[in-house]
Amino acid sequence: xxxxxxxxxxLRAVTDDGAFRVITxxxxxxxxxxxxxxxxxGADAVQLAxxxxxxxxxxxxxxxTHRVQGLLRSADGACLWVGDSDPDGGARGLLTRKxxxxxxxxxxxxxxxVRTLHNGELHRGVVEVPVGSTTSQALMVYLQESEQVVSMxxxxxxxxxxxxxxxxxxxxxxxxxVGQGPLAIMAxxxxxxxxIGPLLAKLDSATSPLMDEILYGMAFTRLEESPLAWRCRCSxxxxxxxLATLPRSDLIALSADDKPIELTCDFCGxxxxxxxxxxxxxxxxx
Length: 286
Fold this sequence. Notes:
By secondary structure, this protein is an alpha+beta fold. It has helices spanning about 30-40, 45-60, 135-145, 180-190, 195-205, 205-215, 235-245, 250-255, 275-285; strands at about 10-15, 20-25, 70-75, 80-85, 90-95, 110-115, 120-130, 150-160, 165-175, 220-225, 230, 260-265, 270-275.
């Protein structure tokens, strides 16, 4: 009997002693779709895949019912990686370069996480990314310094010659009112899982076997599982809404040639043509 192929999802569990909450995610299909859409490969692709996976883990940990964005900036400001995770499980990513040329992967810089609070306001946390740090290490620093959440986290993306082998990761969070003893034991235990890539490739990033490996020999209870998928939020309505925020003078200039203007979504490459009539309608509303 052929085993069903794993699909992208997030799986939650809690240890029966009440010490830890664990979340594992598979993002292989998201990464495959994302990289194919933007024709991205190599070190830049791994960096983007890890940021998107990490952004999903932060949302699942801190704001499962709200949108979370991760922004990774190079030290020279020339490169920006963006991870975007929605509460419906949709995720997408983007890499922009000022010179549009290929270059080395991130070396230093900053990591900024933006999430919506329950009152509708935005929470922004920024941490430095020291030279030589991994995205996993930067995210752990963010969770501890900006969210005051003690966590151990590892994410990875494994590329083959011409395909994405696996992508995913985990976060282990120390629950409140638990002493440092269990944390020291868990930290020692997870040393074998810091380089998560080989295990992700072996398991095809499937979340249940990954959970079993991380919590091997420990009593734990699986909680809810939720699907994840690559999904872009762009639409014609969003394009028109964005144009509507432009100054009236800019709208007049755009409609002066009486020709459609063409816009492209940076995340997915979808193209939108806005007619002169639509531009004039925006002018009438502006």
